[in-house]
# Entry
Amino acid sequence: MPVYRDEAVVLRTHKLGEADRIVTMLSRQHGKIRAVARGVRRTSSKFGARLEPFMVVDVQLYEGRSLDVITQAESLASYGASIASDYGSYTAANAIVETADKLTEGERSLQQYLLLLGALRALSRGEHSPGLILDSYLLRALSIAGWAPTFTDCAVTGVPGPHSAFVVQLGGVVADEVAPPGSPRLAPAVIALLGALLAGEWAVVEAADDRSRSQASGVVAAYAQWHLERGLRSLQHVDRTGSAAAGA
# Structure
């Protein structure tokens, strides 16, 4: 059976039998991988702790009939412990890996892998508020997947902004003449924040007030839920209190 190696981020794990575990990973070169790690739930396992969610590993596998089998795993970055020690980071990380899992079904994308890696690294280091890292990740991951929102020109007509009506189903802000009745209106500060989150302009993001952050998070959540068919179960558990504290 062919053997291969790759760098991967562990997205989630499931118990299998008494001592094994199924590990779902997003890899740099092979896309999403589901593989069996035999004996990792035993206390004597040499690499069980390396195959936990949010960990980055250099992994060796051989191809199986239905699932590949992990034969070696070396730790490249241990983000799991630092993320799990902070509830806000932990809930944001769960939403991030769930999104990555959904967006990479059957596809290989180096951009998605690098974006995921960067988001988890930022969470583990506390570079920004967890909620802001999550919102930026969601917008950028959806954009890579082909669902880039527009926060400047009209998503329908292309007419230059500024526009205040935001319609999730139409792909972003829209001009008044094409905005459906009752479309939500966003303040200029919220639209500016959304654009900064998408572009990764952190100086603008960090300067936003709590009200703008809260409204922007609601827009991002709605946009993500609309484009991901079954929604994101992890979003309802995300702790947003850290965003307010960071902005105080």
Q: What stands out?
A: Confidence is low (pLDDT under 50) at residues 243-248. The first helix runs from residue 80 to 84.
